[in-house]
## 1
Amino acid sequence: MRHILKRLLQILLVVVVLAVVAAIWKREEISRLLAVNSLFSEEKIVQNFSHMDGAFLTQSLARGDGPVSELPIGDAITLPEGSDNWIKTRSVTSLVVLKNGRLRFEDYYLGTGAEDRRISWSVAKSFLSALTGIVLADGAIASLDDPVELYVPALNGSAYEGATIRNVLNMSSGVVFDEDYLDFNSDINRMGRVLALGQSMDEFAAGLTETFTGPGETWQYVSIDTHIIGMVIRGATGKSISELLQTRIIEPMGLEDAPYYLTDGYGVAFVLGGLNLRTRDYARFGQMFLQDGQWNGQQIVPADWVATSTTPSAPTAAGEQKYGYQWWMASDAPEGEYFGRGIYGQYIYIDTNRDVVIATNAADRGFREDGVNDTNIAMFRKIASSMD
């Protein structure tokens, strides 16, 4: 009996030692996973959204050696009635308003500041759309109607085989992907754990096998479609998204600070939601689009791509919000009004008719409630019209 007990204690000791070794070996992965599990908690969300490099692997993008492209200062405005309540209710952390290319309003809330580099979430999709237009104009991509597997052979046999680049830009791939952020086992949350544990986003995307309809038939918001766009661009150019975004958009625009991407364990940028910038730099990007892709006399994004990508083209249902190439339009949007949108209240809103750009970041844990997006767009319109 004593021998058996001694043997059990030895086995237990070995198990404990192995557990300790594993914990040390996987310490970073475990720390990231724990950080992800509390990423959106009420007491941490504001801090987390300005310091995402503390929870994920990242890659910095150099802003270049050129001077910062200054935003001219215009006459300061007072926000319209109801703004204070909107800012509080929607947990807004930053708000920057441009009119005629001039900074007319800027403020920061909930203990954040102008220098914070804030998570874009799905606003990053609009940046990747811009890069798609650049690569298409370069000729690296021959046609938006090419199948994605032409540039990414690893997608042969996956749910994406047969889908075109246009289909994934339009979020009409027909691929089954559960985007329920509140379901621990949803595809979007499984994807988050892949990112946190340093696994491969490419393998995750290529491992999807189910479709619910044919490509191009139905619009359904599927965030992983944007990762496929990134895979296509990388396959077409032989370059990383980080390198391309840095050299073709970030450096020429003279942003204030070096942005960074969240990445997987293979250094692949989390293109569908992992870009981090200062709010003023989100506004600069919006102003560049408002100016038909020009910035400081340089054509950054082809003007025809700006027009095409921000025009409704996806097969959305009647009465729903409209969608272009990774840009949104309200169901009642006049021509020239569009926006990039990310979960928890991230926006770049552009009204070309009024020459207004509004960039805002937030930590809105109620962002999925009915009518919230409509309320936000209504406030942006109210701010824009107040400067007429």
## 2
Amino acid sequence: MPSIIINSQEKKFGIMPNSEAVYSYELRNKNGFKVKIITFGATITSIKTPLKNGKIIDVVLGFDTLDDYIKSFGFDGSPYFGATVGRYAGRINQGLFSLNNKKYQLDKNHNNNSLHGGNSGFSQKIWKVKNVSYEENPSITLSYLSPNNDGNFPGDLTVELKYTLSEENELIIEYKATTTEDTIINLTNHSYFNLDGHSKTVSNQDLFVNSHKILETDTENIPTGYILKVNNCPFDFSATRKCPSKIDTSFVLNNENEVAASLFSERNNLKMFVYTNQPSVHIYVGGNCDARIKGKENTIYNPLSGICFETQNFPDAPNHSHFPTAVLKKGETYLHKTIYKFEIY
């Protein structure tokens, strides 16, 4: 594979403990936007956008080295910076679910529950590069085969993930998956955005979420099964408000053709719109690494460093029959599309 071709470049990012190489790819569009993705976790490591004043800023959190990404998964409360999350994003109560009259026990890696696919989910796997396009709207397609009983999930699950950087400044993420047995699936990207730049805080940025409903959760953030209306309460972002200092909440979406959420930086006159065909966007403000590992450019991240827009199905959906189904049947195809669109004012 060529090392540099017009809109994209491949570079060695690091070496895994088992001596497997991890590569970094950069997509560039005609407007000066750049997105970097590594094969470890199919992870977005940076999104650089030019501003009207000529400056270029990086609007996602991350690390400079592969070793730091690997180390971060040893934390209680790993940040999952920019990672592809699966097989099941979000929490599953006690790591248990039933499918076709059979019970499955998943890894309990967060309190007494399963989170983001368990102890070694998609975020820690090496993804294969299937294709890189260097034409207009550059893209990279990665794939991963999750074998039967990987994390105790049933079925050989084949996943294809395509990142496209459009000439309209959209980062388009498309997931496709098939299985050899009925299984459950819920994929998302776990990027932390900060439109003031990754070394700032999100406190002064304006948040909009196109939803009037959230999932009620218990003290361990497991859905109770109830859906709450949030009109005129602290979780109501249907009218634009400043980013909250603490939030870890699933918002119910109604129309995939509408904006699901947006974020605006008055400091940089930069706005990001989120579109998705998924039934929920999980909003999370965080990024704290307690200075155990410094972020990119020697940055010390804190609990207000970034905000996640995790477009996905409902957490714990396999245990709530009235939630949108998370079952992927043999012979069917899982399709998920999310767009992060940037506008410079």
